[in-house]
């Protein structure tokens, strides 16, 4: 207790010195000797270790209970028959083999791949360009455009609304297609060839991650653009040499989220096309099929499919991390 | 100055306060939703099913709750020491219910079919996995199977799972059929549909009802299923194959000509005649709304849609009220059209069942079964209806089910019956529908599997492809692809049933099927069933 009281002022008066790397030489407590002359070489005190542990413990326990433990258990379950209330039996790779041989699994991966490519192409890259264009407008226009684009919308409510708008019999889009544009009646979600495209379209209107791009663009010093303009740089040159490189770290991070999100697409296609991803399973993603397996009480097969999806997603993320440079100055 | 220590202390304080507050709150919560006190047995009632545990305040305000309260009071008088406790569980969502039961926190009773996602076969698999209590002995004790109405008894015969019972019948639906605008049929001088009408008759009727502003029919996204099931799809597309690892194989090509004819008929109504519409987003609600709003003159569903709330939009009674006509004169109901040779399958009646928690003690399980028996077949049902009558004097509030599982269509002390409540036309339609003999259930002959086997997903995919692909479709190629896909899936499964037992059960099942259809549709037997049994099933069973 006494030791604790003695150390208290140290923490209160020089908290910044505790972060190695921020200063080459930090002053010691109460005018004492420097805490360290080299970053990273300071040996933390016992209290700091306890505090660090206490700070970390809740997050660690939470992640362990709700993240790692279920993931490990799912992996273990995939090698059993995953019976619910009878003794579980080890079945080896049986579930993996069954899932591998299932033609509908291959179909669902194809659907997910197309959906991911379409989704990232249309709802990830377009907002980058739109955000840069918006920044070229006057401040008044920027405010209006941001207000229109970034209205907080309920995802599920909007999705249900879009489902009705896509209705081939009496939907708003059909009215636009036939009465306004004079086209023949369109199948929209009823066509296996078109359904994935129409599923992605609302994402364009929601503007995806545009707000984050705009926030990043606004943080770029105006002097960069002014200097470029003095040098005679036009819109494309400024975009290519200033805006895009400065956005690169954000693009990199959001791309990972977009890949993970698209490969795990479930709610939106389910609400729009039903649990079966009709017509003909053309909109049934991997996670939708996984959910069907759960409904059939095939827990081992569902976890095996989950493991396949995890491996593929992880591979994509690793490739992205390997080839996408984040530092704008490299 | 805020230090890490202060933050830690603050967090610890906030956490401690939350825990203490939560403890105090939970000690007071739900007291008003319990029934009984000082009890030895607690029955958890989840998701307000089969009833919402009533409070005194609710009973005062709502005649329905008051009636239930009276019935429960009568049961608790005979069963002192039992407390009914409301718990929160999403009882109609399979994943929530299965999770709750698996974790030992499920309700005392629940709708049995939910654990199998409304699929009878999957439900029996769930029962075998231990998701419901075995109530075989309690069925004998309470003898409720003797009290099931005659029209529902054949359905009950399919529910034993390898000799054991895991559920109690709680409701009976007279089956699916077609609702049509009776007034428009008469106005246009069209022939009114009746029992035994065909899909060609339906196509003619739908075309005759179509106008510039109203389509002849609206079909749910699964509408393609109906004309095919009416021809024997399901029975004729699965072949017993005890020599295979999974004892069934799939064959959609043997009767390809038959399937092609009716797929083209359905597509013809939508794309050629333009007399019907369907969409991959159309569910029950949308189709019913199209009918009640005058956008479609015909739709398909179960007979329960007659008995909606007159004050709720898009219900049939509301439509009748709006148009100021008796519902029986405005809307007709008829079982689905039959197949070419007289087979019917799409109208088959449907039974709801109650299952019980596998974690209940022997005594608690007895009480739970006793309570559901009391409310479904016993005095509780009568007390509830009589109390409701005394409170409302409204027959439509009292008689809400045209085919009650207990057969009570007239109750002592209530002036009037089902026909008086809803009109003779509707009651007659329900009787006709309920009177259709239930098809033999393979579960009564072939031992149940421990795993559900390959799902029906490839079939649903192909149905939606045929229904919604506007351009040309190669049906024969699709049927071949469907056969290959389904058989490829089947290869991954292993039957838990002994090969010889399966073969013996299958032989008995097909003998029962032949006998049944010999009486109902002899043309189907001679032209379709017998040749198929001889050429396809027999060689496969003997292989």
UniProtKB/TrEMBL annotation, chain A:
Record field: transmembrane: 54-77, 113-134, 146-166, 195-215, 247-266, 299-319
Keywords in alphabetical order: Cell membrane, Membrane, Transmembrane, Transmembrane helix, Transport
Subcellular location: Cell membrane
Residues covered by region (Disordered): 1-48
One GO term of the biological process aspect: transmembrane transport
ABC transmembrane type-1 domain mapped to chain residues: 109-320
Keyword Nuclease appears in the UniProt entry: no
Cell membrane is among the record's keywords: yes
Cellular component GO terms held in the UniProt record: plasma membrane
Membrane topology summary: Multi-pass membrane protein
Annotated PROSITE patterns: ABC_TM1
Protein name: L-arabinose transport system permease protein AraP
Classification lineage: Bacteria, Bacillati, Actinomycetota, Actinomycetes, Kitasatosporales
UniProtKB/TrEMBL annotation, chain B:
UniProt-listed Gene3D superfamilies: Periplasmic binding protein-like II (3.40.190.10)
Signal peptide: 1-20
Domain of life according to the entry: Bacteria
Keywords: Signal
InterPro entries for this protein: Bact_solute-bd_prot1 (IPR050490), SBP (IPR006059), TAT_signal (IPR006311)
One protein family per Pfam: SBP_bac_8
PANTHER family with a match to the protein in the record: ARABINOSE-BINDING PROTEIN-RELATED (PTHR43649), DIACETYLCHITOBIOSE BINDING PROTEIN DASA (PTHR43649:SF12)
Name of the protein in question: Lipoprotein LipO
Origin species: Streptomyces jeddahensis
